[in-house]
Design a protein that fits this description.
alpha+beta; BirA Bifunctional Protein, domain 2; 2 domains; elongated; RNA-binding
RNA sequence: GCGGAUGUAGCUCAGCUGGUUAGAGCGUCGGUUUGUGGUACCGAAUGUCGCCGGUUCGAAUCCGGUCAUCCGCCCCA
């Protein structure tokens, strides 16, 4: 009989136990940051109606980007980000929620795209969004950035330091107005700006001239990246407004305690739904990784679900992406996550099982991760080998003598020292040892 | 969808220009006297050499196709 494959599908992530423990610890810390900051942690459906996920009605086209399927007459798909589902949720629960509404999701996302380095078809992202009705102060944009930085900092021992760069959609809109670009040109130029990092100066210039065919306009756009935004002051009211919003925002970020922030107008965030300021986080120690987190303000996303004007600012941390990349490169030290339990209980024969289980219960009641080796008929050698392999700090040996005297033989697996103790003293030894270890 | 590379034991791979029972290391399991591991030694199991076809007396090895994987592009939160 042919055996079935053991490898997961391409683009799907499987973590080994130690990796998973480390991942879970990171997730716990980041969720903790969000919860303390007053964000409701939501767990929305992974499957949405196709019409919720996409406005495009060209099934073939969107199928290459999403996992789609049909059940009866209902076309549906797996969520590829968290914000679309959240918009639907908020629009559907306007009466139940308090605004500004603060929500966070740490959940799996799905993309149908082809495998590529650092791209997965199933991955975790942590989203955080703040949504307001009719208005939403730009203070919230600053807060979102601050909270992301806190979340990233909470796992800095694994991912290192971070910095953030701020871009502005309104700046480009105003500049395009000023330069009198038509809508096709705006779109194409914007794509070029977004890809500028990847393509390099020459190709960027070429692309601009292809689209614009106007040296003067091309040079104006290029000059943004050379001499910055200042030269566009006093050119139009819209430009002035966009620039002062941006510079004012940098002051706000300081008030919110954000570190390592700077303006970078090449931050465009693709053609996504953003309408205001946008931002991207990168990891200082890992420049090879692409964006660690990104987001911005969106004004129109909820429009398709509700006539109530809802404005949001949100961001996502692509945590699977950075975690897996850092793990594979060896940047994350997993050695301290290899140990599933602190204590292995070795049981010399089924006759001693009852007592062994009471010891196990006592350990667990004392919050000491512990596990009994239940193949009680296995030789001692096999049992202690198991204790060694799971890297238990201590083995507690339970045989006839221990049962008779109501004690346990505790072996320190690192030093090999062994002593006979009451269960209470054994627990004291283990908990004391744990303190020294960390 | 396009281009490049790769597909041999659970894993990482070696098998040169085709030659007869397909290898190593790691891992797994067992053993080196039956309550003491991490080292050492001995031993065992596991492969239709991705799949299909062709060339040949003979193919893991050459050729074609196909599938899969990886890298890049396209696309893109």
């Amino acid at each position: 009989m042919d055996l079935k494959p053991t490898k997961p599908l391409s683009g799907f992530i499987e973590l080994l136990p130690a990796q998973q423990r480390c991942f879970d610890e990171c997730a716990r810390r980041m969720r903790g940051v969000l919860q303390i900051a007053g964000f409701s942690l939501l767990d929305l459906p992974a499957i949405e109606r196709a019409e919720v996920l996409s406005d495009k009605d060209n099934w073939d086209e969107i199928e290459t980007q999403m996992f789609l399927f049909q059940y009866g007459d209902t076309k549906m798909g797996l969520r590829y980000d968290g914000t679309v589902g959240l918009s639907r949720f908020v629009a559907g629960h306007l009466n139940d929620l308090v605004f500004p509404f603060r929500a966070s999701q740490f959940s799996k996302r799905y993309r149908g795209e082809r495998r590529q380095r650092g791209r997965y078809r199933e991955f975790y992202q942590m989203d955080m969004d703040i949504m307001g009705i009719n208005t939403l102060s730009i203070n919230y944009d600053a807060e979102i950035i601050s909270v992301i930085q806190q979340a990233l900092n909470s796992v800095s021992e694994f991912i290192g330091d971070n910095y953030v760069r701020i871009g502005s959609r309104p700046f480009w809109d105003a500049l395009f107005d000023y330069l009198k670009l038509d809508s096709r040109q705006r779109k194409e130029v914007f794509v070029l700006i977004d890809k500028r990092d990847k393509m390099g100066e020459e190709e960027f210039a070429l692309g601009l001239s292809d689209t614009l065919k106007n040296k003067k306009v091309e040079n104006e756009i290029k000059s943004v990246f050379i001499s910055g935004y200042e030269k566009f002051l006093n050119k139009s009211d819209k430009l002035d407004a966009a620039i002062s919003e941006l510079t004012g925002f940098m002051e706000k970020l300081k008030q919110f305690g954000v570190k390592n922030a700077e303006i970078d107008l090449s931050i465009a965030r693709g053609l996504a739904y953003y309408t205001g300021l946008v931002f991207e986080f990168k990891l200082t120690d890992h420049p090879e990784l692409q964006t660690a987190a990104g987001g911005g303000r969106y004004a129109d996303l909820v429009e398709k679900f509700s006539k109530t004007k809802i404005i949001g600012v949100g961001a996502a941390i692509g945590f699977s992406r950075i975690f897996v990349a850092l793990m594979e490169s060896g940047a994350i030290d997993l050695s301290r996550w290899e140990r599933p339990v602190d204590v292995a209980i070795l049981v010399m024969g089924d006759d001693n099982l009852q007592y062994a289980l009471t010891v196990e219960s006592a350990l667990r009641a004392a919050k000491i991760p512990s596990v009994a080796y239940l193949d009680t008929d296995k030789k001692f050698k096999n049992q202690i080998e198991y204790a060694d392999k799971i890297m238990a700090k201590y083995s507690m040996i339970i045989g006839e003598d221990e049962v008779k005297n109501k004690v346990v033989s505790v072996k320190d697996m690192a030093t090999g020292e062994q002593q006979t103790l009451s269960v209470a003293d054994a627990i004291k030894l283990v908990t004391g040892g744990a303190k020294n270890d960390n």
